[in-house]
């Protein structure tokens, strides 16, 4: 556990002292573009590392990462790269917690969050992604501690981040203000929840039909 935290701390120090981060902090967008043209591979590695840090401790604002990626790669590719790296980073944290630190973290007071996630599973993770009332890192850790299936965690994270990241990606472009962000999130999340409930109901009906037909056959 201590070694993992040490690695993340070292990564934070490296990221926060890079030339790109300093230029970005100063708000010089043109300098960011010029710098990235000469260091494309390093940009991919650095933004991925930053997303891993964000999914582990949430010390880097997500809107900052999205703005950086959109500035460097354009809206579509910046949005997709942000989404892909966020899902990959969440999976890395989930697997590390489940495989290495489950017993330690349960003793540290994460059991309450674990119980909540186990009761709701997919929906808890999905809503947590769309409505970021709980930090991303806490969702990853709590899901890793729980018995939530990996495929449920992966699907909920992919769908939830796809929706939430799209909304956040509109803010740097000036198409959306933070004031209206929550209203659109409510509409999109409601649609996602209704779609999921409909899918579950259809699946249940299909299973019932199969079970009834098998009983009649006997």
Can you give a write-up of this model?
With 218 residues, the protein is mostly helical. It has one domain. Helix content is 88%, strand content 0%. The protein has 10 helices and no strands. Helix 9 (150-173) packs antiparallel against helix 10. Residues 61-170 form the VTT domain. Belongs to the TVP38/TMEM64 family. InterPro entries: TMEM64, VTT_dom. It holds the Pfam family VTT_dom.
Feature tags:
single chain; 218 residues; mainly alpha; 10 helices; membrane; cell membrane; TVP38/TMEM64 family membrane protein
N-to-C series of helices and strands: HHHHHHHHHH
Termini Cα gap: 55 Å
Rg value: 20 Å
Overall domain count? 1
Helices and strands: which structural class? mainly alpha
Number of strands: 0
* Mean pLDDT across every amino acid position: 73
Describe the sheet with the most strands.
none
Overall form: globular
Helicity level: over 70%
What is the tally of helical segments? 10
**Strand-residue proportion:** under 5%
Task: List the uncertain runs.
Answer: none
Keywords: Cell membrane, Membrane, Transmembrane, Transmembrane helix
Subcellular location: Cell membrane
Transmembrane segments: 41-68, 80-101, 121-141, 153-176, 182-202
Family: Belongs to the TVP38/TMEM64 family.
Brief summary:
This protein has helices spanning 2-16, 19-26, 29-38, 40-57, 62-73, 75-120, 122-130, 136-145, 150-173, 178-217. The chain has 218 residues and is an all-alpha fold. It holds the Pfam family VTT_dom.
Task: Describe the SSE topology.
Elements: H1 2-16, H2 19-26, H3 29-38, H4 40-57, H5 62-73, H6 75-120, H7 122-130, H8 136-145, H9 150-173, H10 178-217
Helix pairs in contact: 1-4, 4-5, 4-6, 4-8, 5-6, 5-9, 6-7, 6-8, 6-9, 7-9, 9-10
